[in-house]
Design brief:
Shape: globular
Strand content: 15-25%
Largest sheet: 8 strands, mixed
Radius of gyration: 26 Å
C-alpha cells in the first residue's frame, strides 16, 4: 500500500514538474484578479502584509519582496464598491509590478481604492524593514503609435453608465449589433454611485402597498415643482408615464425592488423603489445590467474614448474613438450619447458659478461633459447648463455621498450647536442652502442602530471610519466635539424629534415623511457632512423620443442621447431618485429610437 502511494506521489510530482516546465513565465503569472506572482522569486524574498484605508474600510494586501524588488502582490481583503474598488484591486497590482513603482497612475475613477492599495504595499514594506522610497520611482508615459481600425455596427453607444448599458441591452435584444464604448477602465460611471433608489409612479408594488397618491400626475407635478418649473413638462411627463414600465422591464434583467420609501420634498408621497435590504441601487442595477450585457455578447470596449461624431449629409453615421493602441473609425446606422454630466469638470462648472471652482464633488473623475461638447461641435443645442445641484449630505474629505435613504429611514441633520435647522427631507437645494448658512461650515447627519440594521449601505460608513458613535445621546454629542451648551441642545433635539415621530407631527419644521421610526435604538451615530456638487441638470437638448435637437430646433437624424448628458428633465433641482429613473426610462427610449432608426436605414435604398 505504501509502494502504491509512493508511485502515485512520484507520478504527481512528475506531472507537476512537467506542468511547470510547460508554463515557465519569466516575467509574471496572473493567478487571479488582484494577484501577481513572479515565477523567478528568489529564496530570500519574504512574504509581508500591510493595510491601507479604502473608501469603505481597510484594504489588506500581501506582497512577496526583497529590499529592491517586488515579486508578488495579492489583494487579500477589501470592502470597496463593486465595479469601482474591485477594478482597482483587479488592475493596479499588475501596473505596480510591471513598473516596480508605487507612483503609477491610479485606476481612473477609483483613486481612493488605488491609494489604499499603494498605502497597504508601502506599509507592508515598512513592516518588513524595507524602505518604501525605493519604489517611489517616476514612471515615464509609454509612447505608442496607434493603429487605425475600422469597425461597423448598427448602433454605437458612447458611455457605459446606467443609460448606456440600458440602451445597449434594449437595442441588442431587438437584433441590433451594438458597440458600447467607455473611456474609463470599467462600466457604470456615476450610476455606480447612486445609493438611494429609483423613483417611479403607478407601479404594481406601490399599489400592493396601498400608496394611492403615488400617481403619474403627482410624480410629474412634484418633479416640476421641485425643479422650480424650469424643466420641460413634456420630458417630465414622459419620465413619469414610463417609470412603471421601466420597473417591469428591469425584472427581465433580474432586477427587482421590494420596498418604497419617501424622497426629499415630495410632501410625504413615496416613489423611491429600493432593492431588498436597502443595498445601494446603483451598484445593484449596474451589476444586473452588466450581467445582461455579457449574456448578450455585446461588444464592450473600456479605456476607449470617443472623440468625434461622424456626420454625413447632416446625419450622424458613427464616431471616431481611441484607446492606448488604436484609433477607431466606427461606422453605425445610429449613435447614442450616454456620456454623463460634467460634475467633475470644475473649469466648466466655474464658468457658470465661480464659487464651484474649489468645491468637493460626488462625481467620478470621468464626468467631464465629453458627450455634450462632442454634440455641440456638430450643432446640437443645450439647455439648463447653469443648473448645478448641491447635495446636502456629502463627506468633504473625499466626496463620499451619504444617501438620502438615511433621511428616508428617519435620520436627521443637526448643526454644531446641536440643533435641527430645516426640514431635513425638503428639496436638496433647500437643505443645502440652509446648511451653508450654519456656523462652522459643516453639520452632522444623525442615525441609530435600528437604521443601520435596515439599511445595508450604512455599514460601509461605519467600516470606513466615517462615523462617530456613542452609547447615549450625551456620549455621542461629546464625541462629536460639541460644546457643553451644544451637548445639552443635542439631547433636547433628540428627545423632541422622537416625540415628533411618536405623534406623527414635526411642529418645528413641518417634516412629514421619513418618520416611520424614531432614533431611540443605541448605539447612536453621526457623520460630519456639508453640501457638495452632485448633479449637473443641464446638457444636450432632446425631445421625448431621445432625439438630439440642434440650435435651430431641428432633430439631428441618427443621433440620440439619454441620462445625465441631457438637459431639460430636472430643471433647477433634481429630486432624489429621479436620476436612476431618468437613466432607465430614457436609456430605454434612446435604445428603442436608435433601433428604429437603424432598422429604417437598413431598409433604405442605397444612395
Amino acid at each position: 500500500m505504501n509502494k502504491t502511494f509512493d508511485k502515485a506521489r512520484l507520478g504527481l510530482i512528475a506531472l507537476l514538474i512537467l506542468g511547470a516546465l510547460l508554463n515557465i513565465v519569466l516575467l509574471k503569472n496572473v493567478r487571479s484578479p488582484g494577484e501577481i506572482v513572479a515565477e523567478d522569486t528568489p529564496d530570500e524574498a519574504v512574504v509581508l502584509t500591510g493595510v491601507g484605508q479604502g473608501r469603505n474600510g481597510p484594504v489588506e494586501v500581501e506582497i512577496t519582496a526583497t529590499a529592491d524588488r517586488i515579486y508578488g502582490i495579492r489583494v487579500l481583503n477589501h470592502q470597496e464598491s463593486d465595479g469601482i474598488g474591485t477594478e482597482a484591486a483587479r488592475l493596479l497590482p499588475g501596473k505596480i509590478y510591471e513598473s516596480q513603482s508605487l507612483l503609477v497612475d491610479s485606476i481612473s475613477g477609483a483613486t481612493i481604492s488605488s491609494d489604499a492599495i499603494k498605502e497597504a504595499i508601502s506599509n507592508a514594506l515598512t513592516a518588513g524593514g524595507f524602505d518604501p522610497e525605493v519604489f517611489m520611482v517616476e514612471v515615464a508615459a509609454a509612447q505608442v503609435e496607434r493603429t487605425p481600425v475600422t469597425l461597423d455596427c448598427d448602433v454605437v453607444v458612447v458611455g457605459a453608465g446606467g443609460a448606456g448599458l440600458t440602451a445597449s441591452v434594449l437595442a441588442t435584444q431587438q437584433g441590433q449589433k451594438v458597440i458600447l464604448l467607455e473611456k474609463m477602465p470599467f462600466v457604470g460611471g456615476n450610476s455606480l454611485r447612486a445609493e438611494g433608489g429609483m423613483n417611479a409612479a403607478g407601479t404594481k408594488l406601490e399599489k400592493e402597498l396601498g400608496l394611492d397618491d403615488s400617481t403619474v400626475e403627482n410624480f410629474t407635478e412634484d418633479t416640476l415643482r421641485l425643479g422650480h418649473y424650469l424643466a420641460d413638462p413634456e420630458l417630465v411627463r414622459t419620465l413619469a408615464e414610463n417609470s412603471s414600465d421601466a420597473i417591469e422591464w428591469l425584472k427581465t434583467v433580474d432586477a427587482t425592488f421590494t420596498g418604497v420609501k419617501a424622497t426629499g420634498g415630495c410632501e410625504g408621497r413615496k416613489y423611491l423603489h429600493q432593492p431588498e435590504g436597502g443595498v445601494a441601487v446603483g451598484e445593484y442595477l449596474v451589476a444586473k445590467l452588466k450581467t445582461q450585457v455579457e449574456k448578450l455578447g455585446i461588444d464592450v470596449r473600456v479605456n476607449t474614448k470617443a472623440t468625434e461624431i461622424l456626420m454625413k449629409d447632416g446625419q450622424a453615421v458613427g464616431v471616431l474613438a481611441e484607446d492606448a493602441e488604436h484609433t477607431y473609425t466606427i461606422n453605425a446606422k445610429s449613435v447614442v450619447l450616454t456620456t454623463g454630466g460634467f460634475g467633475a469638470n470644475f473649469e466648466l462648472m466655474a464658468s457658470f458659478d465661480p464659487s464651484l471652482a474649489n468645491a468637493v464633488t460626488t462625481n467620478h473623475s470621468g464626468a467631464q461633459g465629453d458627450g455634450i461638447m462632442m454634440a455641440q461641435a456638430i450643432g446640437a443645442d443645450t439647455v439648463d447648463m447653469d443648473q448645478i445641484q448641491l447635495h446636502p449630505t456629502v463627506i468633504q474629505s473625499d466626496g463620499s455621498l451619504v444617501s438620502e435613504s438615511f433621511r428616508s429611514l428617519g435620520a436627521i441633520v443637526v448643526n454644531t450647536q446641536g440643533k435641527r435647522f430645516v426640514n431635513d427631507l425638503a428639496g436638496r437645494d433647500v437643505v443645502s442652502q440652509a446648511e451653508l448658512k450654519q456656523p462652522d461650515g459643516y453639520c452632522f447627519i444623525i442615525f441609530d442602530q435600528n437604521l443601520v440594521d435596515h439599511l445595508a449601505l450604512s455599514q460601509r460608513f461605519i467600516d470606513g471610519g466615517y462615523t462617530i458613535s456613542g452609547k447615549t445621546y450625551e456620549e455621542l454629542a461629546k464625541n462629536m466635539g460639541l460644546s457643553a451648551e451644544a451637548q445639552q441642545n443635542f439631547v433636547k433635539t433628540m428627545d423632541t424629534w422622537n416625540k415628533s415621530v411618536a405623534n406623527g407631527l414635526d411642529e418645528e419644521f413641518g417634516r412629514n415623511n421619513g418618520m416611520d421610526d424614531d432614533l431611540s435604538t443605541a448605539p447612536y451615530y453621526a457623520i460630519k457632512i456639508a453640501p457638495g456638487i452632485h448633479h449637473t441638470m443641464g446638457g444636450i437638448k432632446i425631445n421625448t423620443d431621445a432625439e438630439v435637437i440642434d440650435t435651430d430646433g431641428n432633430v439631428i437624424p441618427g443621433l440620440f442621447a439619454a441620462g445625465e448628458t441631457t438637459g431639460g428633465i430636472h430643471g433647477g433641482n433634481r429630486v432624489g431618485g429621479n436620476a436612476v429613473c431618468d437613466f432607465i426610462v430614457f436609456g430605454r427610449i434612446a435604445g428603442q429610437s436608435a433601433t428604429d432608426f437603424a432598422k429604417a436605414e437598413a431598409l433604405a435604398p442605397a444612395a
